[in-house]
Specification:
The protein is mainly α. The protein has three helices and no strands. The protein starts with 10 loop residues before the first helix and ends with a helix.
C-alpha cells in the first residue's frame, strides 16, 4: 500500500489476490469397467457416468481458467491504480514547486 498521504486503495490485497480453483484431475477418475450384481443397464449407466465426468472436467477446467483471468485482472488494476497515483503525485509536486504565480502565468499562456 502507498504512503499514508497517498493511495487509499488496498493494492497489496489486489496483488495478492490469487484464486487457484479445484484440480480438474481430481474429478477425472476412470469409470469402473464393470457393474456388480448383473445389472442389465450397466453399460448405459457407465456411458452416462463417463459423459458426466467429461463435462465436469471441462467445467472445472473453465473455472480454473476464469480464476486465472480474474487474478490477472486484479493485478493489472492494482498496477494501473499505483501508476495513476504516482502520475498524479508527480503533477501535484511539479505544481507545488512552480508556485501560485507561475501556475497562473502558465494557465494564461495556454488558454488566456
Amino acid at each position: 500500500m502507498a504512503a499514508e498521504d497517498g493511495l487509499k486503495g488496498r493494492t497489496d490485497a489486489m496483488h495478492d489476490f490469487n484464486l487457484t480453483g479445484p484440480d480438474p484431475g481430481a474429478v477425472n477418475q476412470p469409470v469402473p469397467g464393470q457393474c456388480g450384481g448383473g445389472l442389465v443397464e450397466c453399460g448405459s449407466l457407465r456411458a452416462v457416468e463417463q459423459t458426466a465426468v467429461e463435462h465436469l472436467v471441462r467445467f472445472v477446467t473453465d473455472v480454473v481458467t476464469g480464476f486465472q483471468a480474474y487474478t490477472a485482472i486484479a493485478d493489472a488494476c492494482a498496477a494501473r491504480y499505483e501508476s495513476a497515483d504516482a502520475q498524479g503525485a508527480a503533477v501535484l509536486a511539479q505544481a507545488a514547486n512552480q508556485g501560485p504565480r507561475d501556475i497562473a502565468d502558465s494557465w494564461r499562456g495556454r488558454w488566456g
